[in-house]
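Practice problem 4.
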């Protein structure tokens, strides 16, 4: 089993959020997710800034999905963790490692998942001696899931392919069928996992399934 504590930025990326949350929903015995109330609050503020005209129900729907999939940590001492790590690069992120530290003590998380460059660089600096978990990028986290449960990731690939095919079917401005689940991962900063997904798409059985999904999407659009 892999246990991940999620920082704000993986949750802000729709692409990364969907892949990781869906992995936990489909395989709860293999993937467990944790986050904190502070991270959720920070996520809400950033999401509103990114989408100032978004309906409140849209934000609440995403927030509820995160809360339904992640165990939310609330009891953590930020000042205490600051004393343990005085050289940590950003005072505003102490709450993240404080909550992750509590989760590590209670359930033994394996990774704090973040795409914050300063935090990732700090992990390299202190190596593994500073924390009982590894600070890892979203790309590394997804690759670790792929190594643990290849069948799960194959299922995720087909699920994402079908989801984007449905979006294409509903898009009135799109006529020629085109679904790409690799490029969004690259844009989201997950090149290694994107390459892994590309290889899965070349698997003969997966190729047959994606062809079937594509044909069904084209047929459905023709009826609309």
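Answer key:
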């Amino acid at each position: 089993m892999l246990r991940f504590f999620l920082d704000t930025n993986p949750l802000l990326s729709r692409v990364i959020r969907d892949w990781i949350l869906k992995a936990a929903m489909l395989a709860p015995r293999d993937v467990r997710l944790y986050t904190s109330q502070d991270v959720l609050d920070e996520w809400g503020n950033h999401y509103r800034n990114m989408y100032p005209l978004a309906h409140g129900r849209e934000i609440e729907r995403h927030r509820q999905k995160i809360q339904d999939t992640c165990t939310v940590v609330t009891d953590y001492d930020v000042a205490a963790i600051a004393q343990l790590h005085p050289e940590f690069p950003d005072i505003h992120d102490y709450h993240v490692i404080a909550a992750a530290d509590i989760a590590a003590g209670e359930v033994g998380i394996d990774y704090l998942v973040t795409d914050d460059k300063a935090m990732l660089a700090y992990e390299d600096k202190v190596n593994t001696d500073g924390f009982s978990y590894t600070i890892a990028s979203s790309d590394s986290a997804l690759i670790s899931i792929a190594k643990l449960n290849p069948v799960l990731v194959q299922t995720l690939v087909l699920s994402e392919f079908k989801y984007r095919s449905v979006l294409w079917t509903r898009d009135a401005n799109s006529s020629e069928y085109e679904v790409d689940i690799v490029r969004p991962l690259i844009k989201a900063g997950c090149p290694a996992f994107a390459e892994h997904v590309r290889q899965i798409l070349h698997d003969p059985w997966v190729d047959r399934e994606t062809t079937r999904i594509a044909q069904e999407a084209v047929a459905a659009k023709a009826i609309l």
